Structure formats: C-alpha cells, structure tokens
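Task: sequence design from structure.
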C-alpha cells in the first residue's frame, strides 16, 4: 500500500508484523516509556490503544529499525542510503493542499486550550516531567521564508506554556537570534504524527527548505496548509498540529530528560514557548519517541548523516570504501573505511568527517578489509593496527554537541582522530592473509587449516 501519512504507515507496519499492539491500559507517567523500551528491545514498534486518563492512542518506536525506515520509504533496506543521499540533490517543493486539511478538522483555541490534555508521556524515571519528543518543529526564516524542520524537546509547563530546547547549532535558534534582540517572538508549529518522511527530513542539516527534502524522500510534493495563528505552512495530513511562538527575553529551568547519549541531560535555563492553538484530525493518534531509545539515535544520528558524511569525504578522496555512524556510539563516532589511501590522506578524510556535522566527535579510519559495521572487527583493528603514539590526533577546543557529557555548557570538547596502520609486522598480514580472515575461511571450508608461524612470518 502507498504510504502518505502516519495512518497508512501504521497499517503497512502492522501487515509486516512490525508493531506490538498494547491493549491493556498503561499510565503515561513512566509506564508507557518502559513498555516502549521493551518493545524496541524486541525489535518492534508499539501501539498503545488505551492510555489511562486520555481518549487518544499513542504510537512509538516506528522508525527505530532499518526495516521500518525502508518500509516508510517504500524501498529495500539496501536502498535507504542512496535515497537519503539523493534527498538534498533532487528536492521537490511542497504543494498547497486542495480542500479542507485533515490536520485542521478539530480546532482548539481560547479558554479551552490545554496542551496537557494530549497524552504526552514522562518517559524515563528521572525525567523532570512530560516531554514532547517526536514532534517535528517547523519555523520559517524571517528573511527568505524558508522552512526549517527540526527536533526540539518541549517540556510541559502549563496549559499554554512549554519549554523549547534549541541547540546552539540549529537553524531555528539562528532564526530566533536575529529577532529576539528586537523584542520579537518567533512563530513556530509542531507536527505530531506526520508522514514519516517529514520525521526523516527533520534530522537533516540543510540550508534550503526542508519540506523539499521530505518531498524528495516521498518522491512527491508534501501537501501543506497555512497554520491558523501564524504564517507557517504545516503538513496537511499530520495527526496533530501545535501552534505557538518562542517568547523573546523569557527563560525557564528545564530538564533533566533521558537523551540519546544514554545519559540524562542536566537542568538548565531554556527558551519558553506560548501555545496559541491546537488543531488535529478526528480521532487523532499521538506519536512519541523515547529520548534514550534506539529510534532517537537511528533517526537523529545515523540514517541522514551517513550519506552527508560520505559526500564530504568524497570531496577529499575517491578511495572511500564505507562509512558508518554506529548506534552504540550515540552518533558521535564515525568509522571510515579507505581503500589504499595516499600518504596523509587518512588524516584529511578524518578532518572532513569532523566538519560534516557537529556531532562527529571521534573518527576512526580503517582499511577496506575491516567491516565498519562489525564492532568486533573494528575493535580487532584498533587492537592490532594502531600505534597509539603515532596515530592518535586530539583536537581540543572543538565545537560539539552540548548534550555530550564531556562537553562544557557551550558544547566545547576535545575531539579525536584514530588512524590505522596497514603495514604492521604480522606474518599473516605480510603473506596476504589476515589471521582474522583465515579463521573465517577455515570455518567456511575454504582453507585447509594450517598453523601460522608468526615468528617466521610464514604460513606453514
């Protein structure tokens, strides 16, 4: 079936047996988050039919696996990297929705407005409260009108007040920084439960209109409609739209919350938003994301950034073999395979990788015979091919992600490059067969087991 909104994606995931149906009532306060974590560990998304105290179902973990990401894109898993890579190269602009927009079937404004009536969870035990985590925040540049789509966690403070965490390096903060000194508020909207390609587009770092990326991923224009209280275009088929404005000159303590690093963030003064309207479809579905879960790492740090990383590296060398941002590294570690690089080229590649995205903190460069997707293979290379006194390059005072516990409050940290040494003194390596590979070949019946005489640098 064709995917065009959250509902069609859920049905496709159900047909593929990718969703656990949770029919017993759960509490939005920590319990839902715990059950969602268990479902993610089992490799499935979760659909909560009954959330105690609310009349709206909740879905989570939909984009936590490569299989479901491919399902959302209607392609094979092996094709997702290419689809992500072409998203910024073949943009498709949004189109105005014809007729009444589903996302505005129900309108809530004025005295009846209370964002707390949405089943927004408190996910983890030490979270400071209820957080919107899967909402795609949409803002426009006041100078050129382009839309920026991003993830900005939002803690509930009251019926019409939330926090909004805007990282230093995000475009939405740049928009606000230009107008806040003038005392102007920044209008924005939050799309909850949109077409999944909008959630993917929100993870890109792109200087154009990010609706164009979503259109490219969907291979069709994204239908939009103007918000009711501000000049922001919102996805017409989203389940819920929250409209509001970031308030100039207002800050409030926010956090902690479990984050993608596997740690709780600290509490800090953050920007504050005023909610001006809520619109939604009839019988809406609320969508959420575990802050410390695999979906956050996969969506925010892997699928969109690996193609970006590859593009940066290919500007430096044609010898790129593979690139991976492993989930176990929280998106902060890049592992790059090179095929017979020229002297000094590996270091240039590593510097390019660090420039590709602010989150890249550790760059490991290996040979093309190392499987960058296999943590054991990477550890083997680190253990046997790195001369630590020669191959480790610290980069102090670099700008990274402020959610990294090793960063200061401004995101400044020490980053590091680890370079491989291909020609080490190892008999099996010098005679053309790596011990690691020989073991594999023996197991597969491709080699006759023969002992390796390391001292004599030969296979007996």
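Answer:
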């Amino acid at each position: 079936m064709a995917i065009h909104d959250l509902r069609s994606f859920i049905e496709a995931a159900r047909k593929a047996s990718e969703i656990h149906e949770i029919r017993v009532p759960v509490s939005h306060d920590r319990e839902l988050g715990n059950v969602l974590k268990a479902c993610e560990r089992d490799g499935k998304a979760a659909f909560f039919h009954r959330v105690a105290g609310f009349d709206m179902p909740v879905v989570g973990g939909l984009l936590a696996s490569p299989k479901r990401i491919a399902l959302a894109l209607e392609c094979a898993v092996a094709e997702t990297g290419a689809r992500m890579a072409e998203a910024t190269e073949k943009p498709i602009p949004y189109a105005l929705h014809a007729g009444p927009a589903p996302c505005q079937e129900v309108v809530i404004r004025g005295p009846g407005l209370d964002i707390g009536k949405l089943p927004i969870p408190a996910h983890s035990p030490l979270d400071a409260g209820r957080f919107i985590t899967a909402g795609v925040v949409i803002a426009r540049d006041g100078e050129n009108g382009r839309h920026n789509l991003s993830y900005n966690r939002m803690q509930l403070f009251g019926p019409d007040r939330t926090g909004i965490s805007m990282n230093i390096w995000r475009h939405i903060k740049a928009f606000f920084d230009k107008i806040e000194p003038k005392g102007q508020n920044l209008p924005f909207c939050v799309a909850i439960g949109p077409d999944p390609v909008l959630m993917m587009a929100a993870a890109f770092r792109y200087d154009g209109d990010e609706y164009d990326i979503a259109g490219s991923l969907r291979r069709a224009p994204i239908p939009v409609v103007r918000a009711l209280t501000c000049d922001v275009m919102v996805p017409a088929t989203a389940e819920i739209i929250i409209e509001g404005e970031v308030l100039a000159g207002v800050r409030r303590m926010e956090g902690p919350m479990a984050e993608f690093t596997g740690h709780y963030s600290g509490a800090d003064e953050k920007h504050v938003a005023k909610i001006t309207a809520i619109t939604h479809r009839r019988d809406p579905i609320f969508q959420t994301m575990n802050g410390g879960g695999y979906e956050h790492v996969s969506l925010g740090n892997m699928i969109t950034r690996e193609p970006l990383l590859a593009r940066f590296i290919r500007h430096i060398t044609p010898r790129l073999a593979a690139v991976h941002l492993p989930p176990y590294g929280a998106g902060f570690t890049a592992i790059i395979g090179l095929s017979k690089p020229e002297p000094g080229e590996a270091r240039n590649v590593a510097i390019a990788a660090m420039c590709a995205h602010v989150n890249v903190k550790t760059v490991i460069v290996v040979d093309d015979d190392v499987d960058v997707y296999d943590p054991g293979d990477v550890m083997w290379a680190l253990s046997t091919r790195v001369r630590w006194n020669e191959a480790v390059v610290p980069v102090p005072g670099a700008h990274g992600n402020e959610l990294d516990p090793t960063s200061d409050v401004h995101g400044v940290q020490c980053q590091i490059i680890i370079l491989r040494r291909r020609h080490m003194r190892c008999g099996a390596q010098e005679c053309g067969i790596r011990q690691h590979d020989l073991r594999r070949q023996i197991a597969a019946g491709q080699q006759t087991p023969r002992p390796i005489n390391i001292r004599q640098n030969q296979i007996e």
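Residues 423-433, 447-460 have pLDDT under 50 and may be disordered.
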